[in-house]
Amino acid sequence: MKRLLEGLVENNRVYTAGGKVASYIPELGKANKDSLGIWITTLQGEEYFAGDFEERFTIQSISKVITLMLAILDNGKEYVFKKVGMEATADAFNSIINLETKNPQRPLNPMINSGAIATVSLIAGDGRDNTFERILKFTRKITGNPDININEDVYHSESITGDRNRALAYFMKSTGVIENDVEDVLDVYFKQCSIEGTCKDIARVGAVLANNGVLPWSGERIIPVYVARIVKTIMLTCGMYDASGDAAVKIGIPCKSGVGGGILAAAPGRMGIGVFGPALDQKGNSSGGMRLLEELSKELDLSIF
Ligand code: GLN
User: What is the CATH number of domain 2-60+196-300?
Assistant: First the structure.
Protein backbone atom coordinates (compact mmCIF):
# COMPACT_ATOMS: atom_id res chain seq x y z
CA MET A 1 0.00 0.00 0.00
CA LYS A 2 2.79 2.41 0.95
CA ARG A 3 4.49 1.83 -2.40
CA LEU A 4 1.20 2.32 -4.25
CA LEU A 5 0.60 5.68 -2.52
CA GLU A 6 4.16 6.88 -3.14
CA GLY A 7 3.83 6.02 -6.83
CA LEU A 8 0.47 7.77 -7.12
CA VAL A 9 1.77 10.94 -5.48
CA GLU A 10 4.79 11.09 -7.73
CA ASN A 11 2.77 10.35 -10.91
CA ASN A 12 0.20 13.02 -10.13
CA ARG A 13 2.47 15.77 -8.85
CA VAL A 14 2.71 16.96 -12.45
CA TYR A 15 -0.94 18.08 -12.28
CA THR A 16 -0.15 20.63 -9.58
CA ALA A 17 1.64 22.64 -12.30
CA GLY A 18 -1.66 23.30 -14.09
CA GLY A 19 -3.33 24.70 -10.98
CA LYS A 20 -3.09 27.96 -9.04
CA VAL A 21 -2.82 28.53 -5.30
CA ALA A 22 -5.83 30.52 -3.99
CA SER A 23 -4.87 34.15 -3.50
CA TYR A 24 -8.22 35.87 -2.90
CA ILE A 25 -7.49 35.14 0.75
CA PRO A 26 -3.98 36.69 0.64
CA GLU A 27 -2.47 34.47 3.32
CA LEU A 28 -3.31 31.32 1.31
CA GLY A 29 -1.15 32.63 -1.54
CA LYS A 30 1.96 31.69 0.47
CA ALA A 31 1.38 27.93 0.05
CA ASN A 32 3.88 25.81 -1.86
CA LYS A 33 2.25 25.10 -5.21
CA ASP A 34 4.00 21.75 -5.85
CA SER A 35 2.97 20.07 -2.62
CA LEU A 36 0.95 16.89 -2.83
CA GLY A 37 0.31 14.43 -0.02
CA ILE A 38 -2.10 11.76 1.13
CA TRP A 39 -3.09 9.96 4.34
CA ILE A 40 -5.40 6.94 4.61
CA THR A 41 -7.03 5.70 7.83
CA THR A 42 -8.79 2.37 7.40
CA LEU A 43 -11.70 1.24 9.55
CA GLN A 44 -9.41 -1.49 10.91
CA GLY A 45 -7.11 1.24 12.25
CA GLU A 46 -4.29 0.94 9.72
CA GLU A 47 -2.76 4.21 8.58
CA TYR A 48 -0.84 4.77 5.32
CA PHE A 49 0.67 7.96 3.95
CA ALA A 50 2.89 9.39 1.25
CA GLY A 51 4.22 12.65 -0.17
CA ASP A 52 3.76 15.96 1.67
CA PHE A 53 1.33 14.48 4.17
CA GLU A 54 2.90 16.35 7.08
CA GLU A 55 2.23 19.84 5.73
CA ARG A 56 -0.27 21.90 7.67
CA PHE A 57 -3.08 23.72 5.87
CA THR A 58 -6.36 25.40 6.73
CA ILE A 59 -9.32 23.16 6.09
CA GLN A 60 -11.48 25.99 4.63
CA SER A 61 -14.66 24.52 3.13
CA ILE A 62 -13.96 21.07 4.54
CA SER A 63 -15.19 22.61 7.80
CA LYS A 64 -18.67 22.76 6.21
CA VAL A 65 -18.93 19.00 6.73
CA ILE A 66 -18.29 19.45 10.45
CA THR A 67 -20.69 22.37 10.89
CA LEU A 68 -23.43 20.53 9.00
CA MET A 69 -23.12 17.62 11.46
CA LEU A 70 -23.32 19.98 14.45
CA ALA A 71 -26.22 21.98 13.04
CA ILE A 72 -28.24 18.78 12.54
CA LEU A 73 -27.32 17.51 16.01
CA ASP A 74 -28.43 20.84 17.52
CA ASN A 75 -31.61 21.41 15.51
CA GLY A 76 -32.70 18.15 13.87
CA LYS A 77 -32.67 17.59 10.12
CA GLU A 78 -36.17 18.99 9.44
CA TYR A 79 -35.30 22.44 10.75
CA VAL A 80 -31.85 22.58 9.11
CA PHE A 81 -33.24 21.65 5.70
CA LYS A 82 -36.09 24.11 6.06
CA LYS A 83 -33.42 26.82 6.20
CA VAL A 84 -30.89 25.34 3.73
CA GLY A 85 -31.59 23.21 0.65
CA MET A 86 -29.97 19.97 -0.49
CA GLU A 87 -29.74 20.54 -4.23
CA ALA A 88 -26.55 20.70 -6.28
CA THR A 89 -25.48 23.86 -8.07
CA ALA A 90 -23.84 24.44 -11.41
CA ASP A 91 -22.35 27.73 -10.14
CA ALA A 92 -19.16 28.58 -8.26
CA PHE A 93 -18.88 27.98 -4.51
CA ASN A 94 -19.12 31.69 -3.70
CA SER A 95 -21.82 32.49 -6.26
CA ILE A 96 -24.52 34.95 -5.29
CA ILE A 97 -26.87 34.59 -8.25
CA ASN A 98 -29.00 31.66 -7.07
CA LEU A 99 -29.77 33.32 -3.80
CA GLU A 100 -31.93 35.85 -5.59
CA THR A 101 -33.16 33.93 -8.62
CA LYS A 102 -33.93 30.49 -7.09
CA ASN A 103 -35.17 30.92 -3.54
CA PRO A 104 -34.16 33.97 -1.48
CA GLN A 105 -35.37 32.17 1.67
CA ARG A 106 -33.23 29.08 1.18
CA PRO A 107 -29.64 28.85 -0.12
CA LEU A 108 -29.15 25.82 -2.37
CA ASN A 109 -27.05 23.54 -0.17
CA PRO A 110 -24.76 23.55 2.91
CA MET A 111 -21.53 22.94 0.93
CA ILE A 112 -21.48 26.29 -0.92
CA ASN A 113 -20.61 29.47 0.97
CA SER A 114 -24.15 30.89 1.25
CA GLY A 115 -25.55 27.61 2.57
CA ALA A 116 -22.62 27.07 4.91
CA ILE A 117 -22.95 30.56 6.40
CA ALA A 118 -26.68 29.92 6.94
CA THR A 119 -25.85 26.51 8.47
CA VAL A 120 -23.35 27.89 10.97
CA SER A 121 -25.90 30.49 12.08
CA LEU A 122 -28.01 27.56 13.38
CA ILE A 123 -25.34 26.12 15.69
CA ALA A 124 -26.11 26.51 19.39
CA GLY A 125 -24.09 28.78 21.69
CA ASP A 126 -23.75 32.53 22.13
CA GLY A 127 -23.51 32.97 18.36
CA ARG A 128 -19.84 34.00 18.49
CA ASP A 129 -16.89 32.78 20.62
CA ASN A 130 -18.76 30.11 22.50
CA THR A 131 -20.36 28.79 19.31
CA PHE A 132 -16.93 28.57 17.71
CA GLU A 133 -15.56 26.82 20.81
CA ARG A 134 -18.22 24.13 20.31
CA ILE A 135 -17.14 23.69 16.67
CA LEU A 136 -13.48 23.47 17.68
CA LYS A 137 -14.21 20.97 20.45
CA PHE A 138 -16.21 18.79 18.05
CA THR A 139 -13.41 19.02 15.46
CA ARG A 140 -10.85 17.88 18.04
CA LYS A 141 -13.07 14.95 18.94
CA ILE A 142 -13.82 13.81 15.38
CA THR A 143 -10.16 14.03 14.34
CA GLY A 144 -8.92 12.49 17.58
CA ASN A 145 -6.47 15.41 17.74
CA PRO A 146 -6.70 17.58 20.88
CA ASP A 147 -4.17 20.06 19.44
CA ILE A 148 -6.33 21.25 16.53
CA ASN A 149 -6.55 25.03 16.45
CA ILE A 150 -7.02 27.92 14.06
CA ASN A 151 -4.35 29.61 12.00
CA GLU A 152 -4.68 33.19 13.23
CA ASP A 153 -2.99 34.71 10.17
CA VAL A 154 -5.40 33.03 7.77
CA TYR A 155 -8.35 33.97 9.97
CA HIS A 156 -7.36 37.66 9.97
CA SER A 157 -6.58 37.58 6.27
CA GLU A 158 -10.02 36.22 5.39
CA SER A 159 -11.80 38.39 7.91
CA ILE A 160 -10.30 41.53 6.35
CA THR A 161 -10.94 40.51 2.74
CA GLY A 162 -14.16 38.48 3.03
CA ASP A 163 -16.45 40.96 1.34
CA ARG A 164 -18.08 38.42 -0.95
CA ASN A 165 -19.10 36.36 2.05
CA ARG A 166 -20.33 39.53 3.78
CA ALA A 167 -22.50 40.25 0.73
CA LEU A 168 -23.97 36.74 0.85
CA ALA A 169 -24.62 36.96 4.58
CA TYR A 170 -26.22 40.43 4.54
CA PHE A 171 -28.44 39.37 1.64
CA MET A 172 -29.56 36.33 3.65
CA LYS A 173 -30.20 38.52 6.70
CA SER A 174 -32.46 40.72 4.55
CA THR A 175 -34.50 37.70 3.45
CA GLY A 176 -34.74 36.15 6.92
CA VAL A 177 -32.48 33.14 6.33
CA ILE A 178 -30.04 34.47 8.93
CA GLU A 179 -31.71 35.54 12.14
CA ASN A 180 -28.65 36.37 14.27
CA ASP A 181 -26.13 39.20 14.12
CA VAL A 182 -24.45 38.96 10.70
CA GLU A 183 -20.94 39.95 11.82
CA ASP A 184 -21.07 37.36 14.60
CA VAL A 185 -22.08 34.62 12.15
CA LEU A 186 -19.32 35.66 9.73
CA ASP A 187 -16.74 35.68 12.50
CA VAL A 188 -17.59 32.07 13.37
CA TYR A 189 -17.55 31.14 9.66
CA PHE A 190 -14.13 32.74 9.06
CA LYS A 191 -12.76 30.94 12.12
CA GLN A 192 -14.12 27.53 11.09
CA CYS A 193 -12.47 27.98 7.66
CA SER A 194 -9.15 28.80 9.39
CA ILE A 195 -9.02 25.57 11.40
CA GLU A 196 -5.63 24.08 10.63
CA GLY A 197 -4.76 20.42 10.24
CA THR A 198 -2.95 17.83 8.14
CA CYS A 199 -3.99 15.07 5.76
CA LYS A 200 -4.23 12.78 8.77
CA ASP A 201 -6.79 14.99 10.51
CA ILE A 202 -9.13 15.16 7.54
CA ALA A 203 -8.63 11.45 6.75
CA ARG A 204 -9.86 10.70 10.26
CA VAL A 205 -13.06 12.73 9.72
CA GLY A 206 -13.54 10.68 6.55
CA ALA A 207 -12.98 7.46 8.51
CA VAL A 208 -15.68 8.41 11.03
CA LEU A 209 -18.12 9.05 8.19
CA ALA A 210 -17.07 5.84 6.42
CA ASN A 211 -17.76 4.08 9.74
CA ASN A 212 -21.28 5.58 9.99
CA GLY A 213 -20.49 7.92 12.88
CA VAL A 214 -18.33 5.71 15.13
CA LEU A 215 -14.71 6.70 15.87
CA PRO A 216 -12.80 3.69 14.46
CA TRP A 217 -9.93 4.20 16.92
CA SER A 218 -12.07 3.99 20.10
CA GLY A 219 -15.44 2.52 19.14
CA GLU A 220 -17.26 5.61 20.47
CA ARG A 221 -20.28 6.80 18.49
CA ILE A 222 -20.23 10.57 18.04
CA ILE A 223 -23.00 11.05 15.47
CA PRO A 224 -26.07 8.94 14.70
CA VAL A 225 -26.09 6.85 11.53
CA TYR A 226 -28.72 9.10 9.90
CA VAL A 227 -26.48 12.18 10.29
CA ALA A 228 -23.50 10.37 8.75
CA ARG A 229 -25.70 9.24 5.87
CA ILE A 230 -27.06 12.73 5.15
CA VAL A 231 -23.61 14.32 5.31
CA LYS A 232 -22.05 11.70 2.99
CA THR A 233 -24.88 12.06 0.49
CA ILE A 234 -24.59 15.84 0.39
CA MET A 235 -20.80 15.57 0.07
CA LEU A 236 -21.24 13.29 -2.93
CA THR A 237 -23.81 15.49 -4.69
CA CYS A 238 -22.50 18.94 -3.66
CA GLY A 239 -19.09 18.63 -1.95
CA MET A 240 -16.96 19.49 -4.97
CA TYR A 241 -19.27 22.38 -5.97
CA ASP A 242 -19.89 22.58 -9.72
CA ALA A 243 -17.46 19.67 -10.25
CA SER A 244 -19.47 17.32 -8.03
CA GLY A 245 -20.85 15.31 -10.97
CA ASP A 246 -17.38 14.96 -12.43
CA ALA A 247 -16.00 13.80 -9.06
CA ALA A 248 -18.89 11.35 -8.57
CA VAL A 249 -18.15 9.74 -11.95
CA LYS A 250 -14.35 9.72 -11.63
CA ILE A 251 -13.86 9.13 -7.89
CA GLY A 252 -17.24 7.73 -6.90
CA ILE A 253 -17.15 8.34 -3.14
CA PRO A 254 -18.24 11.30 -0.96
CA CYS A 255 -15.60 14.06 -1.11
CA LYS A 256 -15.30 17.60 0.22
CA SER A 257 -12.70 20.09 -0.91
CA GLY A 258 -11.40 23.36 0.50
CA VAL A 259 -9.51 26.25 -1.12
CA GLY A 260 -6.60 25.55 1.24
CA GLY A 261 -5.97 22.54 -1.03
CA GLY A 262 -7.39 19.77 1.14
CA ILE A 263 -9.86 17.10 0.05
CA LEU A 264 -11.59 14.86 2.58
CA ALA A 265 -12.97 11.61 1.20
CA ALA A 266 -14.92 8.78 2.81
CA ALA A 267 -15.02 5.31 1.26
CA PRO A 268 -18.02 3.77 3.05
CA GLY A 269 -17.16 0.71 5.11
CA ARG A 270 -13.51 0.94 4.11
CA MET A 271 -11.47 4.05 4.85
CA GLY A 272 -11.12 7.80 5.28
CA ILE A 273 -8.75 9.63 2.94
CA GLY A 274 -7.13 13.03 3.34
CA VAL A 275 -5.41 14.63 0.38
CA PHE A 276 -3.53 17.94 0.19
CA GLY A 277 -2.35 19.87 -2.85
CA PRO A 278 -2.81 23.66 -2.72
CA ALA A 279 -2.68 24.24 -6.49
CA LEU A 280 -6.37 24.52 -7.43
CA ASP A 281 -8.24 24.02 -10.67
CA GLN A 282 -10.72 26.58 -12.02
CA LYS A 283 -13.51 25.29 -9.82
CA GLY A 284 -11.48 25.70 -6.64
CA ASN A 285 -10.64 22.00 -6.11
CA SER A 286 -7.09 20.70 -5.66
CA SER A 287 -5.95 19.79 -9.18
CA GLY A 288 -3.32 17.22 -8.16
CA GLY A 289 -5.61 16.01 -5.37
CA MET A 290 -8.51 15.27 -7.74
CA ARG A 291 -6.26 13.21 -10.04
CA LEU A 292 -4.68 11.42 -7.12
CA LEU A 293 -8.10 10.43 -5.74
CA GLU A 294 -9.29 9.36 -9.17
CA GLU A 295 -6.36 6.98 -9.59
CA LEU A 296 -6.55 5.73 -6.02
CA SER A 297 -10.24 4.97 -6.49
CA LYS A 298 -9.46 2.94 -9.61
CA GLU A 299 -6.58 1.07 -7.97
CA LEU A 300 -8.55 0.14 -4.84
CA ASP A 301 -11.97 -0.09 -6.52
CA LEU A 302 -13.45 2.47 -4.13
CA SER A 303 -16.41 3.73 -6.19
CA ILE A 304 -19.74 3.00 -4.52
CA PHE A 305 -21.44 2.72 -7.91
N1 GLN B 1 -13.04 30.46 3.39
C2 GLN B 1 -13.37 30.21 2.02
C3 GLN B 1 -14.40 31.20 1.53
O4 GLN B 1 -15.32 31.43 2.22
C5 GLN B 1 -13.87 28.82 1.87
C6 GLN B 1 -14.20 28.49 0.44
C7 GLN B 1 -13.70 27.16 -0.01
O8 GLN B 1 -12.88 26.51 0.62
N9 GLN B 1 -14.14 26.77 -1.18
O10 GLN B 1 -14.31 31.74 0.47
Answer: 3.40.710.10
- Nearest ligand 1 atom, CA 258: 8
The Cα 104–Cα 222 span in angstroms is 33
Q: What is the whole-number distance in angstroms between the Cα of residue 111 and the centre of ligand 1?
A: 10
Q: Report whether 165 belongs to an annotated binding site.
A: yes
0.90 exceeded by pTM: yes
Can 64 be counted among the known catalytic residues? Answer: yes
| Same fold? 2-60+196-300, 63-193 | yes
Show me where the domains of the chain are located. 2-60+196-300, 63-193
Among residues 227, 231, 259, 275, the one annotated as catalytic is 259
Q: How far is the CA of 190 from the centre of ligand 1 (A)?
A: 9
The model's pLDDT over 240-293, given as tens digits with 9 standing for 90+, comes to 999 999 999 999 999 999 999 999 999 999 999 999 999 999 999 999 999 999
Residue 99: which of 160, 161, 170, 159 has the closest Cα? Answer: 170
- Dihedral Cα 102, 64, 225, 238, nearest 10 deg: 40
Annotated binding-site residue? 259: yes
> 32-56: per-residue pLDDT in tens?
999 999 999 999 999 999 999 999 9
Task: State residue 160's pLDDT score.
Answer: 97
Q: Pick the atom of ligand 1 nearest to 284's CA.
A: 9
First to last CA, the chain: 23
How is domain 63-193 classified at the architecture level of CATH?
A: 3-Layer(aba) Sandwich (3.40)
Give the Å distance between the CA of 60 and the centre of ligand 1: 5
Distance (Å, rounded) from C-alpha 216 to C-alpha 210? 9
Whether 259 is in the pocket of ligand 1, judged by its Cβ within 6 Å, is yes
